């Protein structure tokens, strides 16, 4: 068996056998297959797809490429994973609520990639918070306080780590078999018995339509169930950013506010939808509406926020930042965004010539009709809040605070958003770019 034959087979739209898939995954993980060969195969998979059986075999091979965690000493653990989004701070709110209701949360999260954000980057913006701890410490933390949120450990699904980086660099991310195997291999290796998936669709998601999201959800549910993990999926819109803040520190602050009860409606819907299903899978009640009430109760009585503080302290983070979010570093420039359009140059009365001095800006009013999450995500990356290359360092304090979203009315002169930037010129450019993302009717 050799990699050239495997690439040719997929290129010619043939099905790969289990042995061929195992060969590719083991040899690539062990650096015996070059990145250019793996890229060629990944592109062939992207273009020609995979059968269900191939996707299951790929997932199993990737899960088995590293450690498979045994969480049995903790008891039944429910995991959650999102297919990605912009302004998605759901895990920061959901995980402590669920843990405060007595369901253990042992979750490994990802970093932001492309224009989508990642929970680990957000957690790392809390001074002192350690995201790299050993698998043993991770399990001990969950046993001790019922919750641990960390990054994917070095030896958890290492094949996925290598393939995901390749996909990011070769425009092969938006593929159902590749996303399904990437997510499910990590979930299976991370040891949860039950899995709730948040499958997003719309401008800010990898699946652009609800139909495609449903197809991806069905595939992941089938893989999960075949692996003996009870799996459910919730399909959620990501047409515009989720909540009010986009950017790492800004999202942590929004999450803390949410845990105090000041939670944006769209964030609340996703948190309750996912959480009520997690509680059901954990055997805490079959009635989803009742489960949602229990969750709201633990926000109102402060238990969820207390659990978040406990989590931060236990992972080495400085809790005083959670107690007083004004302590977080803020960007140097906070620039208001007011919607206006450049009016046609008014001609100089005497000369009849249009000059720059005669340019006027007409303020706009109306209702927000469209506000593309993908563009807002790209703007956050432009400000330094995300990476262009995997190794780039991110700027935690930058981002965008949204006052107006789809459906909101705008009066002339309203501040629709604020740009948080550490570079004045970039900030000014971001203001102009954000104005163009708003579509008003
Ligand atoms: N999240 C993942 O972990 N993998 C994907 O392929 C997409 C989103």
Protein traits:
binds uracil; 3-stranded parallel sheet; 17 helices; 441 residues; 4-stranded antiparallel sheet; alpha/beta
What does this structure look like?
The chain has 441 residues and is α/β, with parallel strands linked by helices. Helices cover 45% and strands 15% of the residues. The chain has 17 helices and 14 strands. The chain has helices at 3-11, 18-29, 35-48, 52-63, 90-100, 119-124, 135-145, 158-169, 176-189, 210-226, 248-259, 265-281, 288-300, 303-314, 320-323, 373-382, 424-437, and strands spanning 78-82, 105-109, 147-151, 194-201, 230-237, 245-246, 333-338, 340-342, 361-363, 366-371, 399-402, 409-410, 415-421, 438-440. The strands form five sheets. It has a four-stranded antiparallel β-sheet with strand order 6-11-13-7, sandwiched between helices. A three-stranded parallel β-sheet has the order 1-4-5, with helices on both faces. Strand 4, helix 10 and strand 5 form a beta-alpha-beta unit. The radius of gyration is 23 Å and the shape is globular. The N and C termini lie far apart (60 Å). Bound molecules: uracil. Uracil binds next to helix 9.
